[in-house]
Amino acid sequence: xxxxxxxxxxxxxxxxxxxxxxxxxxxxxxxxxxxxxxxxxxxxxxxxxxxxxxxxxxxxxxxxxxxxxxxxxxxxxxxxxxxxxxxxxxxxxxxxxxxxxxxxxxxxxxxxxxxxxxxxxxxxxxxxxxxxxxxxxxxxxxxxxxxxxxxxxxxxxxxxxxxxxxxxxxxxxxxxxxxxxxxxxxxxxxxxxxxxxxxxxxxxxxxxxxxxxxxxxxxxxxxxxxxxxxxxxxxxxxxxxxxxxxxxxxxxxxxxxxxxxxxxxxxx
Length: 268
Ligand code: GH3
Ligand code: MG
Ligand code: MG
Known about the structure:
Layout: E1 3-6, E2 11-14, H1 17-47, H2 57-101, H3 112-129, E3 132-140, H4 143-150, H5 152-173, E4 176-181, E5 184-190, H6 194-210, E6 212-215, E7 218-221, E8 224-232, H7 237-253, E9 259-261, H8 262-267
Parallel strand pairs: 8-9
Antiparallel strand pairs: 1-2, 3-5, 3-8, 4-5, 6-7
Bound molecules: 3'-deoxy-guanosine-5'-triphosphate and magnesium ion (2 copies).
């Protein structure tokens, strides 16, 4: 295992098994040395340096026990405190790594991994409560032409703007949203009726279509297409995403800038 932990109080580099052994060896040597020196010093201070003097075994025994207890308590306290600090640093580092691995760097939304983890948990909770769920997939229309006309950086700016609209909706309506990849976003709504899901998706689409997005010197309008499905929470996340994706592609085929519900595909 490789670990590099650094903090205000603790700075330690342990990368290989050999480093672990060296680290442990050093600490054991320090503990033994301190114990030896302190025991000898205290005994000498108490008994004096006259090595031919008569001392009772009981006296030495009691002193040694007291000193050993005192030293081992303070040493183990200090070492436990230090390992506690290291463990705290490790826990913080782990949770920071987990947060980074679940977050999309550009938009700050969940990435695919973060969405899959959070949505799977939310689906399990919804299953227990027997409430319906809705999954939607949303894709920016003709995004490649934005990149082609204004450059990749401007395209990134559009992704950030669309993500901000999704975040707003997520905050207002308690929806789980994520950048699922490229110019595609995904969302999970729990405990919504078919009408509510439709309303949320339509609100997202119209908000996006009506928003002036600054691209360089210009203000541009960008549209999105959305596919969604409403189901009981028994369904697997991957299956719900597949169904929503099919609805999304139907929305693209039908001319983009629209919302399509998966059930309508069967009905059509
Ligand atoms: P459609 O309406 O059918 O969705 O067309 P589209 O142009 O939006 O879709 P297409 O799949 O043809 O192109 C998607 C583009 O998104 C291509 C890719 O270069 C771009 N893209 C993917 N990820 C990023 C990103 O992080 N930043 C930028 N700027 N562009 C990205
Ligand atoms: Mg697209
Ligand atoms: Mg796409």
